[in-house]
Amino acid sequence: MFDKLFQAQQKAEEIKKRLDTISVSGEVEGGLIRVIATANKEIKEITIDPVFLSNADKEELEELLVVALNKAITQADQISQAEMQAASKDMLGGLSGLFNQ
């Protein structure tokens, strides 16, 4: 039983490492603002078009940044959930074998 729990813990660590290697993005206004993050929701990069930046007011910039960040986080959540669901199916399959013995 402890072996199965250890395997589950290892699988969770593998998923976390894999999510660190997956990039997601959120962009607004046709790419004027773009946010790059990992599927673990770590923001890696924010780019803002220089022409847009010179013409934008503070409130507009803040609102669009929030939208871009939320888009990236939503994508990260979707990927993370898909990975966890796949891992859960694998783990539950392994655990059912444990209880059927």
TrEMBL record:
It comes from the Bacteria. Its main location: cytoplasm. GO terms for molecular function: DNA binding. It comes from Sphingobacterium thalpophilum. Belongs to the YbaB/EbfC family. This is Nucleoid-associated protein ABTW24_16950. Keywords: Cytoplasm, DNA-binding. HAMAP family: DNA_YbaB_EbfC. Binds to DNA and alters its conformation. May be involved in regulation of gene expression, nucleoid organization and DNA protection. Homodimer. GO terms for cellular component: bacterial nucleoid; cytosol. It is found in: Cytoplasm, Nucleoid. NCBIfam families: DNA_YbaB_EbfC (TIGR00103).
